UniProtKB/TrEMBL annotation:
The chain crosses the membrane at residues 6-28, 183-202. GO terms for molecular function: diguanylate cyclase activity. This is diguanylate cyclase. Residues 204-256 form the HAMP domain. PANTHER family: DIGUANYLATE CYCLASE DGCM-RELATED, REGULATORY COMPONENTS OF SENSORY TRANSDUCTION SYSTEM. Pfam families: CHASE3 (PF05227), GGDEF (PF00990), HAMP (PF00672). It comes from the Bacteria. Residues 470-604 form the GGDEF domain. It catalyses: 2 GTP = 3',3'-c-di-GMP + 2 diphosphate. It comes from Chromohalobacter sarecensis. Its EC number is 2.7.7.65.
């Protein structure tokens, strides 16, 4: 077989590729330089911003100290205190970002000036002001001005130095970007030129060869089997032309045989279509029945009723299903000559998820599942029902077809596997629908019932209390000072606190009580049959339990929270859900206004 065309194509592909690779390598190096320069620019900008922030902190501290000295108003000390806490942190950031010894010494000098100002001026002035000593020492005032001016001078020099470095790095970044652009343009131009020079001859040869072969092929398709391709040369197209001519000669000889076999093939196709149509109709009916099911029990009942009919051409079979909350399979239905049961630990199909197609008896029992060892002789299929979330069951069928009849097509086995896939998908969909219905009424964070479930349940319980006269209480709880918990310890800890409180509420209510998350840090407990006195005792018990709850922080220090509660009772505080919730909310507001960590009862 010649290789000249291959070599030319390889060369034509490698040359532009090498040029592009060289350009990409140079472009990569230039981009790395630009990225390093850009990171330096970003770091310098951050250092300048921190330096300006450091100066503002000093100015805020000096302004707050002076305002306090002049007005004796304690609110002026707020910026002073913030500056004292933020100054070391900002200075530490500048120390970490500064690599120059001169800049480092300037930061050390700035820190010394700030500490000296606090020691010599600010502390003394604040103490005198607190002691109602309104006399300001001229010497202290001059010292304060001198220290502030020195601090500004030092930090101004620090910022000027960083800005000079910033201008230099920005210029370097622009130069690197220009170099990258030049490299990219020249690489593209050179690659295009080399591709044009190397691929144009190949294109001409390829176009001529394809045109010749296509024309001859079209004439052969039209019925002229005497067509032959005439291509000269020693490349692959010439070899392809010779092969085409040999194929045409052989095809001409096979036409007669094709005509004889076409009739037999048509008959086999008709039989296959008829069998496939029957199988598809059976699978369609099964799927429609399963799709109409609303629960797993209903789907299993449907399978129990219809599987013997669907697999009526088998000698027997059994279906086992796996429930979401149990690991052991249980038998749903069994028909025909099948017998035995499944042991989840010994079923090979359940363990590895593979289909078992065995003919009994076999030489070694280890090759088959345990439930097949006592089955009737013949061909057996053990098919796993694989759902979207894992295995949902096992289907065992005793087929009527002999092993030697299953070599070409095997419609019975294919139908069984397709039906098993439909059953697995339908069972998974039913389970998913049940899970979604459960998720729609549960709060994702705490696992309690959500607001939607609360509204429906409260209306239902009120209707029941009206039909069977009796009290019903609604207790609304709110975690006190929850926003500072989030602000001081983070939202992750706030979520943990919500979960801890939710678990405590769930563990300390009656079995018939319903705990819901109302929203944010608010909870609502519906107490059917509980009067005002009993509900108040239950609310006080819950309040005490929450107050005694220890929620460990990251450093193992326990944090305690409290709750405020509002109580409303049917029928004295309202006969409708909105009214009861409103009165409970108003009572909760009253508990908050009265000092928190207490229970308030709605006004009649």
């Amino acid at each position: 077989m010649p290789h000249s065309l291959y070599i030319r194509m390889i060369v034509a592909a490698i040359v532009p590729f090498m040029i592009m690779m060289t350009g990409c390598l140079a472009l990569y190096q230039a981009s790395q330089v630009e990225q390093r320069t850009a990171r330096s620019v970003a770091q310098t900008l951050e250092v300048i911003a921190d330096a300006n922030h450091l100066m503002r902190l000093f100015m805020d501290a000096e302004t707050g100290q002076r305002g306090y000295a002049l007005t004796h108003d304690g609110t002026y000390l707020a910026p002073y205190q913030r500056a004292l806490s933020a100054f070391p942190r900002t200075l530490r950031h500048l120390h970490e970002a500064s690599n120059d010894e001169t800049q480092y010494q300037r930061l050390v000098q700035a820190n010394q000036l700030f500490r000296q100002w606090i020691k010599d001026v600010a502390t003394d002035s604040i103490i005198k002001t607190r002691n109602d000593n309104t006399e300001l020492s001229p010497i202290a005032d001059k010292a304060s001005k001198r220290l502030v001016d020195d601090f500004r001078t030092v930090m101004g020099a620090f910022i000027d130095t960083e800005q000079d470095a910033l201008h230099t790095r920005q210029a370097d970044s622009q130069d690197a970007a220009k170099r990258a652009q030049h490299i990219m343009v020249w690489s593209i131009l050179l690659a295009l030129a080399s591709a044009l020079l190397t691929w144009w001859p190949l294109f001409r040869r390829t176009r001529h060869a394809i045109s010749e072969i296509t024309q001859r092929s079209q004439r052969m398709v039209a019925g002229d089997l005497s067509q032959r391709v005439a291509l000269r040369g020693r490349d692959e197209f010439a070899w392809m032309a010779n092969t085409f001519n040999a194929m045409a000669a052989r095809l001409e000889a096979l036409v007669a045989t094709e005509k004889r076999t076409s009739r037999e093939l048509a008959e086999r196709v008709n039989v296959l279509v008829r069998d496939r149509t029957r199988d598809m109709r059976a699978r369609h009916d099964l799927v429609e029945a399963l799709q109409a099911c609303r629960s797993t029990q209903e789907a299993q009942s449907t399978l129990r009723d219809q599987l013997p009919t669907v697999f009526a051409n088998t000698l027997g079979g059994t279906l086992w299903c796996l429930d979401a909350h149990t690991a052991a399979p249980h038998r749903i239905c069994q028909w025909g000559e099948d017998k035995g049961d499944v042991d989840g630990d010994e079923c090979l199909t359940l363990n590895d998820g593979g289909i078992r197609d065995v003919t009994l008896p076999v030489a070694h029992d280890a090759e088959v599942c345990s439930h097949l060892r006592t089955a009737f002789p013949g061909r057996h299929l053990c098919i796993p029902l694989k759902g979207t979330g894992g295995p949902v069951g096992i289907l065992h069928l005793h087929l009527a077809s002999a092993p030697d009849e299953a070599g070409n097509g095997d419609p019975q086995a294919e139908f069984a596997k397709g039906a098993a896939e439909d059953m697995a998908l339908s069972l998974s969909n039913v389970r998913l629908r049940e899970q979604l219905e459960e998720a729609s009424i549960r709060d994702a964070l705490t696992g309690l019932y959500n607001r939607r479930f609360l509204d429906d349940t409260l209306m239902r319980e009120l209707a029941r209390a009206e039909r069977q006269p009796g009290p019903l209480s609604v207790l609304m709880l709110d975690i006190d000072h929850f926003k500072p918990i989030n602000d001081d310890h983070g939202h992750a800890f706030g979520d943990r606190a919500l979960i801890e409180v939710a678990d405590l509420l769930s563990d300390n209510v009656r079995r018939g009580d319903i705990v819901c998350r109302y929203g944010g840090e608010e909870f609502v407990i519906i107490m059917p049959g509980a009067g005002l006195s009993a509900a108040r005792q239950r609310g006080e018990h819950l309040r005490q339990q929450v107050a005694a709850l220890d929620i460990p922080l990251d450093d193992a220090t326990p944090l305690r929270v409290t709750v405020s509660l509002g109580l409303a009772c049917y029928p004295q505080h309202g006969e409708y859900a909105e009214t009861l919730l409103h009165h409970a909310d108003m009572a909760l507001y009253e508990a908050k206004q009265s000092g928190r960590n207490r229970l308030a009862i709605a006004q009649d």
